[in-house]
Amino acid sequence: VKAELISVGTEILLGEITDTNSQWLAARLPAIGIDLYHQSTVGDNLGRLAEAIERALERTDVVIMTGGLGPTEDDLTREAIAQVLGEETFVDADAEKQLRAFFAARGVSFAERNVKQTMLIPSATAIPNPRGTAPGWWVEKTLATDNPGDTKYIISMPGPPAEMQRMWEHEVEPKLMKLAGDGVLVSRVLKTIGVGESTIDEMVAPLLKSTNPTIGVYAKPDGVYLRLAAKAPSQEEAWVHIAPVEEEARRILGPIVWGADNDTLEGVIGDMLEQRRLTLATMESCTSGLLASTITDVAGAAQYYTGGYVAYSARMKMGLGVSADIIEKHGVISAETAEAMAAAARRNLDADYGIGITGVAGNDEVEGKPPGTIHIAVAGEFGADHISYTFYQGRQATKRRAVTTALFLLRRTLLARDA
Ligand code: ATP
Ligand code: MG
Questions:
Q1: Residue 137 to residue 157: CA distance in whole angstroms
Q2: Using CA atoms, how far apart are residues 116 and 395, in angstroms rounded to an integer?
Q3: Between residues 175 and 351, the one the model is more confident about
Q4: What was the pLDDT predicted at 182?
Q5: Is the CB of 17 inside a 6 Å radius of any atom of ligand 1?
Q6: Given this model, what pLDDT does residue 16 score?
Q7: Is the CB of 67 inside a 6 Å radius of any atom of ligand 1?
Q8: pLDDT at position 211
Q9: What integer pLDDT is reported at residue 414 of this predicted model?
Q10: Where are the alpha helices (DSSP H) in 190-349?
C-alpha cells in the first residue's frame, strides 16, 4: 500500500511552525506496512489544495492529511476533498446537535461557522475527536480511473498534534493495518552512550551483514543508536527475526546500552535511582537549570530528585558552600569547583548523590578557558568523580551536551556502585 502525506497550512509553508505531524506520522507507517512515497506541504488555498490531493490520488492509494479542519474561513481541507471527488457537502445533523451541546456545556457561545466542522460528503465518515471540536474524515472511493475494486483512501485529521495523534492511534491506525496486509516493518532501537559512532560500527561489524533485520548505526545528541529493522508478514514474525540479533548486539555492546526505543536517559536514570531508593540534588552554573528541567521531565521525579540550584555567580556558589579557597586556587571553571558544587548540593539538600556542572557555554573565554570547556562532577558517599572536556557547538547545544554527559556520569557512578 502506497501512501502520501499532505500537511495543510500556510504557517507550515512559511516556516512559522515546524511540521511535526508529518515526522510523527512518517515514523509510524512502516510498522503497519504502509510505504510512504511522498510528502507534500500546501498552504490554505483551495485550488492548490485540490491540486495536491488530485496528484496524490494519481500516484498513491492512501492520502493522509493533517490540518485545515477547523471552523475558520481558511480551513479548506473538506472543501478541497469534496471538489476533487466531485461530491456535495452536507451537514451531519447528529454531529451538529452534539457540537452545540458541547459548546453549551462549557458555557461558550456558539459561532454559526462552527457548523462547518460537522460537514460530510457521501464518501466520508466522521472520525471521532475527543480532544477537539473537529472530527476527522475517513474517505473511501473507487475512482473512474481505477481498476474495479481498486479503492482510494483519504484520511483527513486535525492539525493540532494532540488531537491528530489520539485520532491516529485510536481510530486510524487499526483500520489502516487491516488494509495493508502485505508485510510490516518493525524496528528496535538500542541506545548507547560513551562510545563513538565508528567504534560502535566496528563492534557490531559481524552483525552488519544481516539483511532481515537490517542494521543501521547513527549518532544522536544523547548517544549512538543502533536500529534493527525487520520485515515479515506480521509483527509477531518480524519480532522473531529481530530477537536473536538484538540479543547478540546487547551481548557485544554490554553496559554501554542504556535503553531502547522510546527510553530517555533521564527516565532510565530515574528508574535506577528509584529502584535503589537513592536521591539526587544538583548545582548548575553554565547549564542554568537545564539539568534540573531535564530530570523533572520524568513523571514521578519527586521520588528521587530533592532539588537543585542555579548558581551562576562565584558569589552564589560560595554562599551555597563551595569554598573560596577552591575557587581561588583552581578557578570557577575547574573540575575541583564542579566537585565542590556537587558535594555542596548533596550536603545542603540531604541527598545521596549531588551533580555539579561548571563551564563556558558562551562564545567567549572565561578565566582564559575556551568556549565549550565543561567540568561535571558527581559526589556521593564514596567521594567524587568527574568528567572534563572541551567541545563548543553553540550555546544551546553545548548546554544540552553537558546535561547529557552529567546523566551519563551519574549512570556510570550507579553502575560502579552495583558492581
Ligand atoms: P483548528 O481547529 O485548531 O483550526 P485545524 O485542523 O484547522 O485545527 P490548522 O488550522 O491547520 O488545523 O492548524 C492548527 C494548529 O495545529 C496550528 O496552528 C499548529 O499549531 C498545529 N499544526 C497544524 N499542522 C501541524 C503540523 N503539520 N505539525 C505540527 N503542528 C501542526
Ligand atoms: Mg485551523
A1: 7
A2: 47
A3: 351
A4: 63
A5: yes
A6: 95
A7: yes
A8: 81
A9: 96
A10: 197-203, 235-253, 265-275, 290-295, 314-319, 324-330, 335-348
Which residue in the block uniquely carries the three cell numbers 544540552?
Answer: 400
pLDDT digits (tens, 9 = 90+) for 82-118: 999 999 999 999 899 989 998 998 899 999 999 999 9
60 CB neighbour count, 10 Å cutoff: 21
Tallying the residues shown for the chain, one arrives at: 419
Choosing from 10, 11, 118 the residue with most ligand 1 atoms within 8 A of its CB, the one to mutate for a pocket test is 11
In this structure, are residues 160 and 202 in contact, taking their beta carbons and an 8 Å threshold? Answer: no
Cell of 260: 531502547
Residue 140's pLDDT band (cuts 50, 70, 90): very high
> Which residue has cell 567567549?
364
Cell 583552581 belongs to which residue? 330
- CA atoms of 102 and 135, how far apart (whole Å): 13
| Ligand 1 atom closest to 132 (CA) | 2
Nearest CA to ligand 1 atom 21: 160
Please state, in angstroms and rounded to a whole number, the distance separating the CA atoms of residues 242 and 247.
9
C-alpha 23 to ligand 2 mean position (Å)? 19
* DSSP track, 342-384: HHHHHHHTT-SEEEEEEE--SSS-BTTBPTTEEEEEEEETTEE
φ/ψ of residue 235, rounded to 5: -60, -40
How is the chain split among helix, strand and coil, in percent rounded to 5? Answer: 45, 25, 30
Mutate to test the pocket of ligand 1, among 10, 40, 75 (most ligand atoms within 8 A of CB): 75
Q: How many helices (H) and strands (E) does the chain have?
A: 15, 17
For residues 273 and 414, the answer to whether their CB atoms sit within 8 Å is yes
Does 213 sit behind a cis peptide bond, omega within 30 degrees of 0 on the bond before it?
Answer: yes
**Ligand 1 centroid, distance to 239 Cα (angstroms):** 35
Question: Is 166 exposed, middle or buried (CB count within 10 Å of its CB: 0-12, 13-18, 19+)?
Answer: middle
Q: How confident is the model at residue 30 (pLDDT cuts 50, 70, 90)?
A: confident
Question: What's the 19 CA to ligand 1 centre distance in angstroms?
Answer: 9
